[in-house]
Design brief:
Length: 162
Amino acid sequence: MKGVVLLTLLLCAAPASARTVLGSFDNWSAFRDEKPVRCFAIAEPVRGGGGGGRKWRPFATVSTWPQARVRGQFYLRLSRASRAGAAVTLSIDGRRFSLVAGGADAWAADPRADAAIVAAMRSARAMSVTGVAATGGGFAETYLLKGAATAIDAAALGCGRR
């Protein structure tokens, strides 16, 4: 919960054109930005998030971009930049998802993979991501999923038709 409060404060303080807090739900929060219009559920890892140093903080999001007709897009900001060509794997309740990675970013390969990841997140207690850092060492991050489904729904509703 402490991480959610810190993340909420960080995001609210970040420069954004009219960012609206849609809610805080256990380990996850939901926000709406106006320009461009996007809504997202977001959380920080509970373990393994210390590698970005002062450059960035790792997080996971599920976003809706109405103007681009994108719903439920999964994205991770990793704790470390990943090694080029190395696998980045998301694990949720024994299911493994290969992610596309570039630097410190990782995402689902396509909308079908986004949907499968979000569906798995809705019924699981935790998810973890593993990979090989650009420096050669491995990394692992764990996210608790309590509140994720509610935050994802709040984000989707926040970007519903107005």
